[in-house]
Design brief:
127 residues, 2 helices, globular
């Protein structure tokens, strides 16, 4: 799948997928990497060392710092893949150095899929 590089890097890992947008501020615990948003389809799941796939971010601009906090606390996702990366997520992944690609048809990715992300070239491959 060919998309657009938001933040560079190359990683492989297991996908954790949400069909719902994610709000990092109040949605993910920056100390544990666990989704804490009540009623979210990923509530109770941990994003640590996963490739986090979701359509787009939502909520406060503080979300950028939550993404950075996830990285500083060692509980960040290995990469982020979006249908459309908006400025909150883009700022966060760039600050944190987390590879990120958007313009990807995320409906083709399921939780548990092994993925290779080559964000430098905007490429996501299922392994």
């Amino acid at each position: 799948m060919k998309g657009r590089m938001i933040s560079p890097g190359k990683v492989e890992g297991e996908a954790i997928v949400s069909s719902e947008p994610i709000g990092f501020y109040g949605g993910i615990d920056a100390k544990t990497g666990i989704v804490i948003e009540k009623g979210h389809e990923l509530e109770g799941k941990c994003v640590k060392d996963k490739i986090l796939v979701f359509p787009y971010g939502k909520g406060s601009t503080v979300g950028s710092y939550v993404i950075y906090g996830l990285k500083m606390n060692g509980v960040a996702p290995k990469a982020i893949i979006n249908k459309e990366t908006e400025t909150i997520v883009a700022t966060g992944v760039i600050l944190a150095g987390i590879p990120c690609v958007d313009k990807i048809d995320i409906e083709n990715i399921k939780t548990g899929d092994k993925l290779r992300v080559d964000a430098d070239n905007g490429i996501v491959e299922k392994l």
